[in-house]
Design goal:
CATH architecture of the largest domain: Alpha-Beta Barrel
Order of helices and strands: EHHHEEEEEEHEHEHEHEHHEHEHE
Helix content: 25-40%
Largest sheet: 10 strands, mixed
CATH topology of the largest domain: TIM Barrel
Shape: elongated
CATH superfamily of the largest domain: Aldolase class I
Structural class: alpha/beta
Strand content: 15-25%
CATH class of the largest domain: Alpha Beta
Number of helices: 11
Distance between the termini: 28 Å
Number of strands: 14
């Protein structure tokens, strides 16, 4: 931090214990800080009423909590969706989304300021890459939204700005904090990391045995189309990507989810669906079809009939197929729409 204070948000239990000892306190004070930060969602040291006044004053002098400043909040008129604009301490900005659906309360988190992968249909990619977020900046999106909205989140998807597996260490640290039973306690199976397909990171993720789920942003069933839509397809062809995903499925004993944005006249034909069946054949998986949310002018959304035809062609896979008509498109909060729009 510019102030020279130690940022506590994003620190693990062990790191907080070490911090407590570094300022001359007993190790157990670190556990108290962990509880106040992640279980009780404290907004300041003054809230930590089981700490002596002298300790709270010491903490105020040397440490800080909360990485984000709210710069904007937009409520959808069409759904129970809210988009948050946060300013980081170096004046970069990110967006997060809260989606309420019946008993589910899902937060879509950003993992980077901007994105370097330049997927051709994605507004975030068009704004370019600025930097990775810290684990604290990722976790603080959840803490802030839970306090502001007065909800306990049931699900977290790391599908906002950025490529989670490019910021691997900070993302995994944040997910562990979100999952910790003495903190936010969000179930591992309800934390989903989305990737455009960084093959070495998929192998690493599988080998480390995390309880979190993996979603693959596929978006095309052939190398020819995928290289046009997702530049990373030039580095990692589908054969390499699918080998890594099959390894993950076997090693982690998890069914991966494939995200597939349907672009009218680009990747939504019956032939595309049949190619997708051939690509995924024999792999236990889930498929999320996402009719395109307007973000880049040259792409458009297929009509309901085209979406239905695509779904019907996937039936031979005998895999769960969901059509996700995204929430929050009216406030540019849907999949692929997050981008900082400067006046």
């Amino acid at each position: 931090m510019k102030s020279g204070k130690k940022m506590l948000t994003g620190l693990t239990l062990q790191e907080l214990e070490q911090f407590a000892e570094s300022i001359g306190e007993k190790k157990f004070r670190g556990r108290q800080l962990f509880s106040w930060l992640y279980e009780k969602r404290a907004t300041g040291f003054v809230d930590m009423t089981d700490l002596a006044k002298g300790l709270r004053e010491k903490l105020e002098a040397v440490a800080a909590i909360g990485c984000l400043q709210l710069a904007g909040r937009t409520q959808s008129n069409e759904s129970n969706t809210v988009k948050y604009l946060f300013q980081l301490q170096d004046n970069h900005s990110i967006e997060s989304v809260l989606i309420r659906e019946s008993s589910r309360r899902t937060c879509c988190l950003s993992t980077q300021a901007g994105c370097a992968f330049k997927c051709s249909f994605c507004a975030t990619g068009a704004m370019g890459f600025h930097r990775d977020l810290t684990a604290g900046e990722i976790v603080d999106q959840v803490l802030f939204i839970e306090r502001e909205a007065g909800v306990d989140l049931t699900n977290v998807v790391l599908m906002g700005m950025g490529e989670p597996l490019q910021n691997y260490d900070a993302v995994i640290k944040a997910c562990r904090l979100l999952n910790h039973p003495d903190g936010l306690a969000i179930a591992g199976r309800h934390i989903v990391l989305s990737t455009v397909g960084i093959v070495p990171a998929i192998y690493r993720f599988a080998d480390e045995g995390h309880p979190f789920r993996l979603a693959i942003s596929l978006h095309a069933p052939t190398d020819e189309k995928r290289r046009i839509l997702l530049p990373i397809g030039r580095k990692y062809p589908l054969a390499e990507l699918m080998k890594a995903v099959r390894y993950y499925a076997q090693k982690a004993r998890q069914h991966p989810t494939f995200e597939y944005v349907l672009l009218a006249g680009v990747n939504d034909s019956e032939q595309d669906a049949e190619d997708l069946v051939r690509l995924l054949k024999g792999l236990p998986c889930k498929i999320n079809l996402i009719p395109y949310n307007a973000a880049i002018e040259k792409f458009s959304t297929p009509d309901a009939q085209a979406v239905d035809r695509f779904v019907q062609r996937l039936l031979p896979l005998q895999a769960p197929v969901s059509v996700r008509w995204s929430k929050g498109a009216d406030i540019a909060a849907a999949c692929g729409q997050l981008a900082i729009r400067h006046p």
